[in-house]
Design a protein that fits this description.
The complex is a heterodimer of chains A (about 180) and B (about 100).
Chain A (H helix, E strand, L loop, with lengths): L13 H22 L3 H21 L3 H26 L14 H21 L13 H8 L4 H22 L12
Helix pairs in contact in A: 1-2, 2-3
Chain B lengths: L4 H21 L3 H25 L4 H33 L13
Helix pairs in contact in B: 1-2, 2-3
The chains are: A mainly alpha (about 180), B mainly alpha (about 100).
Chain lengths: ~180, ~100
């Protein structure tokens, strides 16, 4: 039996319900990422934020980007971040102070940015904004391998350079062995 | 609500502001990198939202979002490698203790 467009017995659309739930999850977990004391939990909250953003991409009719979000962000970047956390945190490090001494200025800057963006977005009428349309994956692939071929190749070179650079930077120098790891 | 471009753009603006706060306020270098990832995600959400609502931009937005994700992955790799390299020298991930040039 197909599900209707609206929540039964009300005029609320399912899309709106999903949007509110996913947006609340996204903003809530993003706030947890920047405020929690234990950095491992920050990393796990970041995974929750990425997952809810993938849901929002599906809501926007873009399943390719949602799948890429899950594969690259949840599958790769989160694991990278969690490994970096494991390599850099000492037992007593989850320090007394989570924030810098000027955190109030950062909060002020963030509030100003949010207010400016919200005001300018709502004050603008976007000329050709229609309804949400489902993105055709085949056309995305065709465009990626025709008009955007050069950026695609440049990104592949960039990724190779990033891998080589990451290995080079994180590698232990041959001469600093175990003796200076006190 | 889910049918208007404004709500998605405001959402991404809020996410960007949260990321800005985290980047400026946290002491831990890895927390700062996570905040940068949040900001990149906010920008990507803007791109995809415009693509979903403005018909001529639709496929272009998806391609640009894919490229942004790839570049973000490269950025995360190099950034975390730098943090690990600094940690190996200074034995701390807290950025306000990287003060050897302030003397």
């Amino acid at each position: 039996m197909p599900i209707g467009d609206t929540v039964p017995l009300t005029a609320i659309r399912w899309d709106d319900v999903l949007f509110v739930v996913l947006a609340a999850m996204l903003l809530g977990s993003a706030l947890l990422v920047v405020t929690m004391r234990d950095i491992i939990r920050c990393g796990l909250a970041m995974i929750a934020a990425f997952a809810s953003l993938a849901g929002i991409y599906v809501l926007l009719g873009n399943p390719v980007i949602a799948a890429t979000q899950v594969l690259v962000y949840i599958g790769a970047i989160s694991v990278l971040v969690l490994f970096a956390i494991m390599l850099t945190q000492t037992k007593n490090a989850p320090a007394r102070l989570v924030f810098q001494t000027q955190a109030w200025a950062a909060a002020l800057a963030a509030v100003v940015i949010a207010a400016v963006i919200a005001i300018s977005v709502t004050a603008t009428t976007w000329p050709s904004a229609g309804a949400v349309a489902w993105t055709d994956t085949t056309r995305v692939a065709e465009l990626l391998f025709s008009d955007y071929l050069l950026p695609f190749e440049v990104v592949s070179v960039l990724l190779t350079a990033a891998v080589v650079g990451g290995v080079l930077l994180a590698r232990r120098e041959p001469d600093d062995g175990e003796e200076d790891r006190s | 609500m889910s049918g208007s471009l404004d709500s998605y753009l405001v959402l991404s603006g809020l996410l960007f502001a949260i990321g800005t706060f985290g980047f400026l306020a946290r002491r831990n270098a890895i927390s700062m990198l996570m905040s940068i990832e949040l900001m990149l995600n906010a920008v990507n959400l803007t791109v995809v939202a415009f693509g979903a609502f403005v018909k001529p931009l639709q496929t272009h937005a998806a391609v640009i979002a894919l490229l942004v994700i790839a570049v973000a992955a490269a950025e995360a790799t190099v950034g975390l490698a730098i943090v690990i390299a600094i940690y190996r020298n200074r034995k701390t991930p807290l950025v306000d203790e990287y003060d050897s040039m302030s003397e």
